[in-house]
Amino acid sequence: MSEVELTLHGKLQHLKERSGLSLRAIAREMGYSQASSIQRYFSADYAEPVLPANFISKLLAVLPGKGTPPITREDVLALADGTVAEIQRKAPSLPGTGVPIVGEVAAGLWMEAALFETEKAEESTISYDVRFPTQSQYVVRVRGESLNKVAANGDLLLCVDYLSAGIEPKENDLVLVERSRDDGMTIERTAKRVIRMNGQSELMPESTDPRFQDTIVFREGDFDHTEVTIKARIVMVFKPL
Fold first, then answer.
1. In terms of Cα–Cα distance, which of 27, 53, 64, 57 is closest to 42?
2. For 59-75, how does the pLDDT look when each residue is reduced to its tens digit (9 = 90+)?
3. Model confidence over 194-205: pLDDT tens digits?
4. Using the 8-state DSSP alphabet, how is residue 93 labeled?
5. pTM, rounded to two decimals
6. Which among 201, 212, 144, 197 has a CA at the least distance from the CA of 175?
7. How many helices (H) and strands (E) does the chain have?
8. How far apart are CA 90 and CA 171, in angstroms?
9. Nearest partner of 58 among 84, 92, 93, judged by Cα
10. What percent of the chain has pLDDT over 90?
11. How many CB atoms lie within 10 A of CB 96?
12. Burial of 79 (0-12, 13-18, 19+ CB in 10 A)
């Protein structure tokens, strides 16, 4: 049976399998804590011919770009009714230029801002992510091998500023983290993975190198006047040829 002939259940299951994500992982990416929150939509007993608009909107923030070949917005919109699909297809107009490269990050290590910020942003060939406001997006270049599970030296990371995009950090997000020390005189940045451990949020390294295995636990501050803030979500890794 071709994908066109599949039922709604079959199409949704096909996208799930193509994405390589578990139902629990999809639910968490959509902002739910349990797979049971979305399970009924993936059930063969779901009787509606299309998915509700709010569910489609959340799927559009999770599935596109996943899998091989990458899932597209059109693949997800095929699960919506005609009206919702037409509205969602009207993606916001984006700048004709690429997302600016604003500097570097030594992923897994703390790196002073003065060392990675550039005086003038360099234009990349990376397109803006239509899910987020253009002004909230920027690119940083990875320095070193301390993020080698997901990005190598020289790779580019497309970042979305949490505050300006109006989004919240979620478990399993790959994030850009900022640390302020010496009463704000020293600003450092790194990249980590958000996880929940022993009832608290921790930032874990994404490296196989034993030198880069330190975790960060969220604290409001300590006696050294150190404060850690999650600044941006890393939504895509690009590997220049």
1. 27
2. 887 888 888 888 888 88
3. 887 666 777 777
4. P
5. 0.56
6. 201
7. 7, 10
8. 30
9. 84
10. 9
11. 6
12. buried
